[in-house]
Write a sequence for this structure.
């Protein structure tokens, strides 16, 4: 049996994935099913008996780990909901909310359970890896209107949060890891240097690409880059570590002649950069695989990519089993698996362009189903951007690594300006590409998800088995054309009205969508829910946003649309009399009606009255009316949606 670690890793990963998705409720059923399947394979296929035994044992270990973690960690932590607890640990991450408060992730122990808790604490002299003790009333993190916080943090094994600046903390004055602290501080200073030297958009791009910090990227910019297929460049991973190790190894090799010393110094550099990048799942996966690869060379043994990937799955999820369903973990592992499959198929006749095309297509189709399920769409343009734009990003990244390794001295400013030049072209091209209809395939229906999965399975196999790269290119274009045609047909056929509701106490925001066209209503939110509106428009599959309506502070709110929305409205109707220089803004007096053809919108004191065919809505502050039925939504904590028949939580 070859690749035992790979078979075991995949089985272990499958067990943890099923356990995490179903919250450990069906672990017994999964274990019995796996046992039955293993018995059948063992009995019927003698050549695969070892495979059956290894896979079942690994699967059983994964189920046992998930069950144990859920019972002894997750359940006990969730039981602390609403209780005052004291946590002793260290500051793992810290980010500034405003001038008065910081969001702090503390890693430590509560009642003997090792975990992480998110706190909002008053601004103070706090630093990475400072020893800290926090006393606060904690609550379970749940999905909200602005962000799916519960699902996001669940995959990171962060289940509890403190109140908003209600806790009391004490710093011991000691750092649990001064070296790691210095590395993280250096990263923040380098990020600030990048932002101070480069233009805002280029600086935000370089900072995210090098440091993994996307805080300076606007929601519109993020949407643009993810739709154009460049989002993966910000997940610090293999390409970053390869460049870093190459630069470092070359420099050290000129000074140190002993190969053993160079090997150990390079490993230290690899893991030092992983700490620099925040120890995200993707960078840790890449660091582990590079460690295995370089160790193989060092000990005179050839490293196998699939075995390394299988061992990575075990190492990354052993202490935090729920990590297995984090988007970063899933996409990173699927992408590497696609690369390994294509590499093993040995297409020597491919040229450099053909090989890159085959790899890019394989990664696209291997990750497409996960992308559709996790994010509601797939970037069809990623094949083009990987060929044309990623090499330019790599050039900028190499220049940034020179700044990183030289300490950001006198040459930092000209080098960063030089690094920003390719990025400027990348941003221009990605913006144009992202706005094309065929660049992004929305998976806003079950039919589209099925079509994407079927096409992905077929083309993943094709990328591995088809010998000629030109045929791979033709088949890739054909499948993408089918996806684009299918999503456009689905959009045309889905001509029912849909109302998406984002409640925020006595304020609300709404999206009325028909056939991929959205009408946005800001009723008292003053732009505070713009990022949530963008997220919902991505989920629904919006292609056009011709009109927006703002009840309060219309001029100021409309001014923020350029940064907040990827799609820009042609006309913004505002209901106050503030002076605005925005040429799109139109003043809509109370009781006036905007005739939008198939829809009429009337301004009211506390909202808007919308008429569409035989439907009539009142969209107000904390309340809405649907065909005469008034509904109080001020107490809702989750987004709502009216599908033409009933109003339900999303």
């Amino acid at each position: 049996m070859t690749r035992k670690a790979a078979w075991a890793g995949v089985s272990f990963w499958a067990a943890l994935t099923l356990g995490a998705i179903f919250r450990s409720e069906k672990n017994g059923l999964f274990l019995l099913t796996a046992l039955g399947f293993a018995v059948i394979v063992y009995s019927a296929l003698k050549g695969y008996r070892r495979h059956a035994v290894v896979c079942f044992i690994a699967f059983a270990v994964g189920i046992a780990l998930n069950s144990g973690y859920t019972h002894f960690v997750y359940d006990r932590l969730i039981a602390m909901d609403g209780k005052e607890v004291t946590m002793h640990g260290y500051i793992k991450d810290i980010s500034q909310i405003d001038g008065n408060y910081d969001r702090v992730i503390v890693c430590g122990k509560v009642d003997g359970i090792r975990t992480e808790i998110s706190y909002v604490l008053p601004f103070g002299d706090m630093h990475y890896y400072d020893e800290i003790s926090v006393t606060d009333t904690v609550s379970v993190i749940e999905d909200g209107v602005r962000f799916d916080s519960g699902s996001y943090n669940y995959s990171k094994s962060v289940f509890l949060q403190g109140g908003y600046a209600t806790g009391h903390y004490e710093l011991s004055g000691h750092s649990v890891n001064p070296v790691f602290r210095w590395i993280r501080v250096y990263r923040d200073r380098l990020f600030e240097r990048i932002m101070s030297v480069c233009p805002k958009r280029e600086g935000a791009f370089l900072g995210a690409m090098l440091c993994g910090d996307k805080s300076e990227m606007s929601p519109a910019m993020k949407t643009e880059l993810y739709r154009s297929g460049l989002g993966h460049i910000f997940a610090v991973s293999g390409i970053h570590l390869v460049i870093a190790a190459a630069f470092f190894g070359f420099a050290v090799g000129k000074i140190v002649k002993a190969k053993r010393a160079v090997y150990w110094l390079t490993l230290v550099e690899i893991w030092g950069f992983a700490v620099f990048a925040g120890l995200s799942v993707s960078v840790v996966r890449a660091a582990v695989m590079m460690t295995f690869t370089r160790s193989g060379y060092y000990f005179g043994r050839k490293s196998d990519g699939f075995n390394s990937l299988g061992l990575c799955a075990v190492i990354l999820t052993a202490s935090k089993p729920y990590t297995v369903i984090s988007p970063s973990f899933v996409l990173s592992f699927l992408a590497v698996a696609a690369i390994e499959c294509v590499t093993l198929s040995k297409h020597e006749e491919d040229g450099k362009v053909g090989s890159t095309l085959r790899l890019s297509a394989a990664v696209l189709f291997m990750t497409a189903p996960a992308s559709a399920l996790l994010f509601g769409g797939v970037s069809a343009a990623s094949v083009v951007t990987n060929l044309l734009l990623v090499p330019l990003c790599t050039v900028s990244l190499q220049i940034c690594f020179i700044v990183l390794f030289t300490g950001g001295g006198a040459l930092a400013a000209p080098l960063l300006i030089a690094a920003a030049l390719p990025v400027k072209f990348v941003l221009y091209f990605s913006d144009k590409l992202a706005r094309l209809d065929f660049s992004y395939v929305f998976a806003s229906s079950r039919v589209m998800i099925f079509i994407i999965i079927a096409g992905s399975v077929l083309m993943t196999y094709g990328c591995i088995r088809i010998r000629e790269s030109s045929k791979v290119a033709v088949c890739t274009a054909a499948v993408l054309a089918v996806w684009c045609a299918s999503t456009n047909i689905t959009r045309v056929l889905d001509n029912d009205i849909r109302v998406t509701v984002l409640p925020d106490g006595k304020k609300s925001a709404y999206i009325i969508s028909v056939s991929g066209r959205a009408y946005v209503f800001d009723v008292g939110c003053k732009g505070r829910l713009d990022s949530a509106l963008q997220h919902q428009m991505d989920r629904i599959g919006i292609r056009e946003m011709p009109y927006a309506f703002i009840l309060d502070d219309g001029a100021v709110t409309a001014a923020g649309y350029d940064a907040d929305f990827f799609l820009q409205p042609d006309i913004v109707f505002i209901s106050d009399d503030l002076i605005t220089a925005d040429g799109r803004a139109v003043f809509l007096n109370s009781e006036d009606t905007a005739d939008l053809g198939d829809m009429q919108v009337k301004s009211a004191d506390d909202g808007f009255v919308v008429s569409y065919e035989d439907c009539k809505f009142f969209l107000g502050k904390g309340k809405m009316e649907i065909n005469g039925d008034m509904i109080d939504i001020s107490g809702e904590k989750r987004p709502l949606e009216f599908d033409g028949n009933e109003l339900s939580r999303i």
Observations:
- Residues 5 and 307 are 5 Å apart (CA to CA).
- The first helix runs from residue 4 to 21.
- The first strand starts at residue 84 and ends at 96.
